[in-house]
Amino acid sequence: MFSMAFHPVPDDIDENGHVNNAVYVNWLQIIATAHWRAVATADMQARYFWIIQRHEIDYRRPCHLGETLTATTWGENPRGARFDRCTRITGPDNSIRAESRTIWALMDRTSNRPARVPPQVAALFTMTA
Fold this sequence. Notes:
Order of helices and strands: EHHEEEEEH
Strand content: 35-45%
Largest sheet: 6 strands, antiparallel
CATH topology: Thiol Ester Dehydrase, Chain A
Helix content: 10-25%
Shape: elongated
Number of domains: 1
Structural class: alpha+beta
Radius of gyration: 15 Å
Number of strands: 6
Number of helices: 3
């Protein structure tokens, strides 16, 4: 698991007074990228990159300006080139604000084609690789 804090800024807030849905998608990208950079070796980062195939987000409670939010992410279910990344965003009171599942595909930089997720890469993100 990997966690980081997010702090909504005025531009993140929509006309309903809470964080806009599109901001959550950006946060999912930010935490996934930070996680990869934090745990992957330099060789892995030079050989592979990730692309998003699908996002599913369940919005539980709104997030507001001035809150410190915690996003926690982990991987599940590596299969072929695909990998599920789960993310949970919680508020300062530990309430779940949003939960997501994103399907990522691992890409080989040389061929620019999907690459089967190697066990050593899967082990960086999952409890059981």
